[in-house]
Design brief:
By secondary structure, this protein is of the alpha/beta class. The protein has 16 helices and 14 strands. The structure holds zinc ion (ZN).
Length: 425
């Protein structure tokens, strides 16, 4: 697989796992990550213009790291935003502070009750302060106007341009909605698609998407495979693990398995029928094993079956990737942000995190080219799609420039040449 030149000077990289629209949408928001106080946050909002939604949407606010960890009130945000609807959302996306206009558009007044699993924070006189927690955030997020097709297209254009500027020639979108393919195809026709895009709709949507596909298909907008999610994630302690988390959630000590082995087998057979590879999210070692079992017992002939993330893989399962000819698509860059969670939640499995050396050697031992079977990605916008972060993590297994930062499973390191080869399209 080779992508067209982007003229960026170091082009030709493959981003094997990203969310194209969400990444572009995050680019349109105001970055509050650098603000060190409420005053700085309000200054930043005051300097921002409403985006295509007509709102000023601030992201990555970190009040808990300020000297005075105090969110702005709705009135303060209202003034800073000059009356435009506005919110400032926290880095972890679990809380946001909304302006007076935003609260009004969301229908949040004195009488509106808290939603299940959410809180509208109120002052002594029971009026909303503007701060919303957990699912109460959705009241405001849902009040932002849905983008038109043209706005979505321009968001995708900006997203893909950013990928191209980082050296990518090919981006794999990992949850492609029905409008994405047509939007990318139009951009391509206009000469505004800076990378080729590979689509992965949800498994359940693939039949319908296959019918639409011939109407927009072009060389630079391809159909990759059918996406399924088989478990949760590390930080939320929902990755499906062979052994319990060190500090588990009650009742789900080993995380959550979203698909049974039987259901996976049915899906793989259905994919065979559609001549599409299954592309499955599996973060925990038990999720990876279950998936390998299902692939093993169905032996799909369609090439390109992929396991996304594979953040933890048991020793015994390593040779099965090569034996089954499965492609693995990890995001080593997540190791840089996950060092502490790994050591806190899975200290007993830290040596099995991102086992890149084992995977590389297993493919090579089986006579397969590791470069054709291990594809790096970032899962942007979860983390920025900076190619050097994947190289840093794969080679050094720790953050750069932080003496004393723990090193995760150093024996799983790749050489720099090996790591770079896994980024090339
Ligand atoms: Zn993803």
């Amino acid at each position: 697989m080779s992508g067209p030149s982007t003229g960026s000077g170091f082009d030709g990289l493959r981003e094997a796992h990203a969310h194209v629209y969400d990444f572009g949408d995050a680019l349109a928001c105001v970055d509050l990550g650098g603000c060190r106080s409420k005053a700085e946050l309000l200054d930043t909002i005051a300097g921002a213009q409403p985006d295509h939604t007509g709102w000023i949407r601030g992201m990555r606010a970190m009040p808990e790291s300020w000297d005075a960890p105090e969110w702005p009130t709705h009135a303060e945000l209202h003034d800073a935003a000059r009356g435009n609807p506005c919110y400032a959302r926290s880095l972890d996306i679990h809380s946001l502070s909304a302006s007076t206009e935003a609260l009004a558009r969301a229908g949040i007044d004195g009488d509106r009750p808290d939603p299940a699993n959410g809180v509208i924070v109120r002052d002594e006189s029971k009026d909303a302060t503007g701060l919303l927690l957990e699912l109460a955030c959705n009241f405001v997020l849902d009040a932002v106007p849905a983008p038109t097709f043209e706005q979505r297209k321009q968001t995708v254009r900006a997203s893909i341009e950013r990928f191209a500027s980082l050296g990518y020639a090919e981006v794999h979108d990992m949850l492609s909605l029905d409008w994405l393919g047509p939007a990318c195809a139009e951009l391509d026709k206009e000469g505004n698609l800076a990378c080729s895009v590979v689509l992965h709709p949800l498994f359940e949507d693939c039949r319908a998407e296959l019918e639409r596909y011939p109407h927009y298909a072009c060389e630079r907008v391809r159909f990759g495979g059918a996406k399924v999610f088989t478990d949760g994630a590390l930080n939320s302690r929902t990755a499906f693990m062979l052994e319990p988390f060190a500090h588990p959630l009650e009742g789900i000590e080993r995380g959550i398995a979203l698909w049974s082995e039987d259901k996976l087998r049915v899906a793989i057979r259905e994919c065979e029928d559609m001549k599409l590879p299954l592309v499955a999210h599996a973060i925990g070692d038990a999720a990876v094993r279950r998936l390998l079992n299902a692939i093993d017992s169905t032996a799909p002939k369609t090439p390109g079956t992929r396991i996304e993330h594979a953040q933890f893989v048991d020793e015994h399962d390593i040779p099965r990737f090569a034996r089954l000819g499965v492609i693995v698509s990890p995001q080593p860059c997540h190791l840089l942000t996950d060092i502490e969670p790994i050591l806190r939640l899975l200290p007993h499995r830290a040596h099995r995190a991102f086992p890149l050396r084992d995977l590389w050697d297993a493919y090579a031992d089986a006579g397969l080219d590791p470069v054709e079977h291990i594809w790096f990605g970032s899962d942007a916008p979860v983390v920025p799609p900076n190619p050097e972060d994947n190289i840093q993590a794969a080679v050094h297994r720790t953050r750069a420039g932080e003496p004393g930062c723990p090193v995760i499973a150093p024996d799983q390191a790749l050489t720099e040449d090996e790591a770079r080869s896994l980024m090339r399209a």
